[in-house]
Amino acid sequence: MLSRAPYGYRYLGRREAEDGVARFEVVEDKAAIVRQIFHWVGEERVSLSMVCQRLFEAGVPSPTGNARWNLSMIWTLLSNPAYAGQALFGKVVSLPWRPTLRPARGRAPIPKHLSRRIPALLENRIAIPVPPLVEAALFEGVQEQLEESRRRHRQRKQGVRYLLQGLLVCQACGYAFCGRWKAPPRSRGRQYHYYRCTGTDRSRLNGRHRCEARPIRVEQLDAAVWDEIGRLLDDPARVAAEYQRRLQAVRTGPRRPELETIERQLTRLRSGIGRLIDSYAEEVISKAEFEPRLASLRRRVAKLETEAMVLQDAAEQERSLQLVIGKLETFATLVRDRLEDADWDTKRELIRTLVQRIEIDGQHIRVVFRVAPGPHGGAALPRVGQHCLGRDRFLREPDG
Fold first, then answer.
1. Which of 62, 164, 246, 358 is 20 to 30 A distant from 192 in Cα terms?
2. pTM (2 d.p.)
3. CA distances from 320 to 37, 325, 326, 351 (A)
4. How confident is the chain (400 residues) per 10-residue block, as mean pLDDT?
């Protein structure tokens, strides 16, 4: 049932075991590292970041073979009850896949396996005895410290909410921009909130920077994107004009035969293929004459099937665009009067409804709407200044 052993163990299959019983076997050199990590956190009260630093300085490779450990690895290790002697089977359950706000870096919008995994209920998990590596009291003490750290981390985030979280993507490296805050020295209680590319976080990337993007002040970027949303809804004709242009392009594109004509031609060609095969079976024509004629007919059928598919897609697109045009004015009328008095939740819901992603390339910000407002499918904002912690102002690039 537990074929994959956690760090510090190895799985001993029933064919390898002398008594024919599958189990976990302790790997002593890795088990010593596990005990050391529990000792650092549970008795010395060392932070998880310091644990990662100590392991790196000691030259201990991570479970995946990297030179550096990351915080999630340490957290997962410390939270695994197998080290206290009770491995759990059925810790997660699979549920149907749910579309995300924006696909992760390097992943397709629709995954290959349409399912997601979430933690299972405690009563549905099965405990299996395994050799313990740490004492139960030490394990419980570490869990209490992890819970305290989680609670303090959440308390620090109270009142800090990021309007564009989940929509920002760095054009330089493809990683997402996430909300961060910082209280610089001698700030007298003042905090700076900004969006930062995760490609610049060394703790996540084995101690190396993958991106040189600078952080962006939250207030300025939020205001710029919200102003663009307001301009779009104040003048929905921008979107309607773009869709009308697409509809016109569909109608006035290269002239093709009508779908009904193509379907009649396909019917005749398929019938001709059937008659040709019957003639060959009855030895009316020879093989040398049959094969090239059959290949020619099949090429014509494939070409017509492709044209029919293109016409079907164009007809479906035209129907979809007509529905969007019909509903756009109604939607803009409903929400236009509420923009000035919109609260944070309303703004976030509206932005997630209209915006597909926000691309950040240096100081150039580009909003890509789900309903494209222009020929390029996006709206370019003015340059947004980066945040300099040394001065409470924004830096702007000179024009030109």
1. 358
2. 0.55
3. 57, 9, 10, 22
4. 86 83 90 95 90 92 89 92 91 84 75 83 88 94 88 59 87 85 65 83 65 87 88 72 66 62 88 88 86 90 86 72 67 72 84 87 82 44 46 34
